[in-house]
Amino acid sequence: MPNLTQISAIILAGGEGRRMGGQDKGLINYQGKPLIEHVLNALPLELAAINISANRNQARYSQYAPVVEDLEYPLQGPLAGIYEAMKRCQTEYLLCLPCDTPHLPDNLIPRLYAEMQTKQVDVAIATTATRSHFVISLMKCSLLDDLKTFLDNGQRRVGLWLQQQSHCEVMFPTDNEQFINVNHLHDIEKPEA
Predict the structure, then answer these.
(1) What is the CATH number of the domain that holds 124?
(2) What element of type H or E holds 33?
(3) Of 118, 156, 161, which Cα lies nearest the Cα of 137?
(4) Domain of 138?
(5) Which of 48, 140, 161, 165 has the greatest count of CB atoms below 10 A from its CB?
(6) Domain count, the chain
């Protein structure tokens, strides 16, 4: 089991919500509460810090956790939010999560951490049989300078940057909704939601 006091978390809610008709995805109700609450409830309270990356509705998000804005690379995608969180990080590790995955598994952090230690890598990425979930990852904050260089070179793709690091992919089962993304309004409106 990891020492949770050595892990900080950033929940990425800084997108423009284009696939949600411009709505702020993290604040959309899903199963009776905003998506951001589902993600927050999946995190253990023992983590050193939990922050939210948001570029609008900061006052609402700040009711849940401290808000980090994309100051150095405004509106440049998830990596900008990860960079700002990593700059402020006081721990060795940063857990990154999107705001639109309301059913995260309970064993996410222990599994990512264990694989990082076993394989002696800097990044562990949650993966299923269908794809790698790059924005669900645990990484060392010592990657800050490398991330800055990547962003300064005009690169923005999370997967590209992560795959350039020493990394491992941690396989999770696909027979449930643990990594379902609520990306569209029709995902909210489904009867089972």
Answers:
(1) 3.90.550.10
(2) strand 33-34
(3) 161
(4) 4-189
(5) 161
(6) 1
Q: Is the pLDDT of residue 16 over 90?
A: no
Query: E strand or H helix at 61, and its extent?
Result: helix 58-61
Tokens 């892990």 locate to: 7
Query: In the chain, what is the greatest distance between 2 CA atoms, to the nearest angstrom?
Result: 45
β-partners of residue 98 are: 12
- Give me the torsion for CA of 180, 49, 112, 87, rounded to 10°: 100
pLDDT digits (tens, 9 = 90+) for 84-105: 999 999 999 999 999 999 999 9
* Stated pTM of the model: 0.90
Angle between helices 78-88 and 144-152 (to 10 degrees): 140
Among positive and negative, which fits the CA dihedral 82, 87, 88, 90? positive
Asked if 22 contacts 12 with a C-beta cutoff of 8 angstroms, the reply is: no
Residue with tokens 């995608």: 77
